[in-house]
Amino acid sequence: MTKTVFNNVTIFDGSGAAPFQGSVLVDGARIAQIARDGRDIEVADARTFDGRGRFLMPGMTEAHTHFSWNDQPTLSAIQFMPPEEHILWCVRVAKRYLDMGWTSAIGAAAAKARLDVVLRNSINAGDFPGPRYLAGSQELTTIGGLGDNTLPHLPFEELSFGTVCTGPEEIRRAARMFIKYGVDHLKINLSGEYIAGIPAELSPFSEEEIAMLAAEAKRNGKRVAAHARSSESVKQCVRHGLEMIYHASFADEEALDMLEANKDKHFVAPGIGWLVRTCFNASDYGVTPEIAEKMGYKRELEVAAQTLSKMHKRGIRILPGGDYGFAWMPHGTNANDLQYFVDYIGMTPTEALVAATKLGGQIMMRPDELGLLREGFIADLVLVDGNPLENLSILTNPDRIALVMKEGVIHKECKDIRPPSAALHIADDNRPFVDEGVRKAMQ
């Protein structure tokens, strides 16, 4: 078995404890030994790296991933990509994530029915490099809901972004179809989305429809993820046991109480980067700050900052990721979320990194072997030039991701792989810009 030693590194183990100087031995796919107090590990048949004090941390988990979003400015531009080109796109993007230190990912919905499943299977077979991946279904929506792009003069429902369902039996059929295809979990759009012309606070599904989805998922041992911006949709997630809640911007006090009472059952991946970058970074694609405010995104960002801050204080699990893959927030820039967690939610940099590592192991359903740098755990490791706890933006710079290891295999140990540029909206202090209205909402 291959052995690798990292000597003279600053170890962040993902638990939230302070980093320490030490060394790490990887034997095969797992971490075999950790030495503290700056002691080197000597193994004759191991490949040995002198870390020169670099920051060694667990691989990160992206909890709200859309690999098939193709860095375009509209949902239609994503959906109309032919399937042959689309799967090739997904393969390239999966590698981009691994290059940037994301060693695990949750598929939050595929643009076409089997894209996530085929990609996951190819990664697992070793055909292409990519994160450890849990595949999602296409989005389940209803007539007039987010993802219903059918046109009245065309009978082709296949052109719709989501799978359109009305009534419990259509939900049952769609769920069984995706389970047949081999998804790890199902996705449903329980609320609207402003950019699609549907109010974010709309909750279009009936209790009976959601109950049917939950029952089919449970019967088949699958989890459910939900696009849930409205307060009512968050409550629906808790009432029906839908484990992964995406967005949750408008959760009211009752919804927060329900989440807190069930915080060991749910994860929230808010996709706050979507709100920030749509408000401030989408002008080149026709969404100026004025247009974003008119749509409702500035108000949502203000409300979400306050809501998520309350969630964090209540101990509800909040993870990074969400809706990267649009033109103004391309794949590979996902680590922007970590600074947004600090600036908008009130996390410390350490808490933001714990959310990306330790909590990632939990949402991947492998908390005893993923997400922490500990002896016996799977060797998903990232070696970083610089200290992210002092400057989280380091993790958005491909030149600073010096080495990436997944399951004991070194994927990247060079600095010549760079995702498309997406400049941060920064203030003079080199930190992401926080709008004054949002700042007041957080107080």
TrEMBL record:
Listed SUPFAM superfamilies: Composite domain of metallo-dependent hydrolases, Metallo-dependent hydrolases
Record-annotated Amidohydrolase-related domain positions: 55-409
UniProt cross-references to CDD domains, sorted A to Z: Met_dep_hydrolase_A
Domain of life the protein comes from: Bacteria
InterPro entries xrefs: Amidohydro-rel, Metal-dep_hydrolase_composite, Metal_Hydrolase, Metallo-dep_Hydrolase, OTAase-like
Alphabetized PANTHER family for the sequence: ALPHA-D-RIBOSE 1-METHYLPHOSPHONATE 5-TRIPHOSPHATE DIPHOSPHATASE
Protein name: Amidohydrolase family protein
Species this chain originates from: Ralstonia mojiangensis
Lineage: Bacteria, Pseudomonadati, Pseudomonadota, Betaproteobacteria, Burkholderiales
